[in-house]
Amino acid sequence: MGLQRNLTFAGSHFERFVAGNPDCVGGDTPVSDPSADKLKCLEFTLPSNFSAQLNEANTPTDPFFSYFSFTDNSNNCKGSDLASRLQDVYARNITVNTPIFLSVQYNNTEAVPTDAHFINSISIGFWLDATNSSSVKPPKPPAPERRGGPTTSNCNILWASSVVQFEGQYILDYKNPICGPEAPKIVDNSTQTREDVSLAEYSRNYGVGFWTKPLKALSDAYGLTNSSIIFKSIDDRKFSLSVTSDASSPSADNSCVYTYLATDRSAVLRNFTLQSYDLGSLPLSNETTPADGCISEFTTSRLFSFIFTNDSSACGATDNGIERFGRYFSVPIALDFRYLDVADGIFNITVSEDSPDRRRDGNAATFVFFDKSFIPTTTTSTIAPTSTAVSTFASSSTVSQSASAKASASQSASGSAVVATTTVADAVPTGYAAPTVYAAPAAYGAPTVAYGAPAGNNLYKGASAGKVGIVSALVAAFVFAF
Q1: How many of the other CB atoms lie within 10 Å of CB of 377?
Q2: What dihedral do alpha carbons 176, 178, 179, 180 form, nearest 10°?
Q3: Among 7, 260, 283, 479, which one is least packed by beta carbons within 10 Å?
Q4: Residues 6 or more apart from 286 whose CB is under 8 A from it?
């Protein structure tokens, strides 16, 4: 059974966190993701105090799973234990003689095992049977056979506690920030700052920060200090950062509020289309141009990854950005993938020459993509005069950047503690309604430590972590070079 440990836990209510990728992959017959009604069947509670043994690999009847108390007992849901609920929701049997891999994230150290470990999230990996397994032949040697067998589907799902702030990635909400008439004025509204502020990360150990910059980047953008930033938990999957001109008395009038949403499937599952590009001064290829259709559209199922829609062999691999964009230039290239505003679907790809001293400047090429679902039928254009608008858009329909793409934070070198509050109801512009049903645990509050590395690692994981995927591993940067 591998590594085992006995711990005392503090449980709560848990809901499914639906990521961009499908719940299950592989097998000869795809497993459909559950409907919203069926997802409710997987909500459960854990006791406020219980002891259990954590194993790397488990069976559905192991003691830890016996504490799951599923909350929806309507006729829509069948079964009272984990195995029967999974089989009902996914309409497949759990593959026999295969383990359920378990990862549990909790919020305190393991120095005293008898102290209650509050559980933030739980993820499991398991296999489901195929419906027509007899039609599939096992792989020929030396190709390995997966542990679940050649006809099974590998599934990975996550639950998060609904009574604490979700730990992980967040994106800027639609049409943010919202600023009052006496709010601070932003002093750095560059593309770089818009990119920096579009993605945030929350952790009880790290506090709040942006993916490539510390929290101080936001106050620097306004020419203020970190004492001007107020963190507020709105609910378990939403928080706000208010930049105020009067931290002693924040109000709707004197604040700019940035609201962030946890990056679930609705945030990251997108269909992008090329809107404009500027080739800069990079040496160009004589073979083709971006008008060839190879980069016109792509889809995303998670942040920073994409699959191009055009699968012509002439374009190159659908998931190889270097190959696709490299066709337009006569020098080796490097790519930066950035979000100007994830919530509005503004996606920016910068191409620079691949060299040790490369930098993003006027020499670089820029490609701007938009999520089709956010493109209105009539807008005004804010494309730079040197950019090339793509012909897939009607001549009368160009795209402008939203308010949230026009105000954000600047880069900075260091950060300090956030001024935390959960009581200032009027610290956001008029129209905001504070939640009335969300209640955090008595000991739960906004982060009170400086943004930086945690004192210790409190994430339980076994050798199965590579199969299951560990929740909320903080990422230092989101610039990917292929």
Answers
A1: 7
A2: 180
A3: 283
A4: 330
**Distance set, CA 236 to CA 180, 240, 346, 351, 422 (Å):** 26, 12, 26, 37, 13
Q: Is 60 exceeded by the pLDDT of residue 433?
A: no
The first and second tokens of residue 394, run together, are 């009607």
The whole-model pTM stands at 0.67
Alpha-carbon dihedral sign for residues 10, 460, 125, 56: negative
- HEC string for 376-435: CCCCCCCCCCCCEECCCCCCCCCCCCCHHHHCCCCCCCCCCCCEECCCCCCCCCCCCCCC
Helices (H), 226-340: 265-268, 321-326
Whether the upstream peptide bond of residue 177 has omega within 30° of 0, thus cis, is yes
Nearest to 147 by CA among 103, 102, 99: 99
Tell me if residue 219 falls in helix, strand or coil.
helix
pLDDT in tens, 209-230: 998 889 999 999 999 999 999 9
CA distance 367 to 277: 4
Q: Helix (H, G, I), strand (E, B), or coil: what is residue 290? A: helix
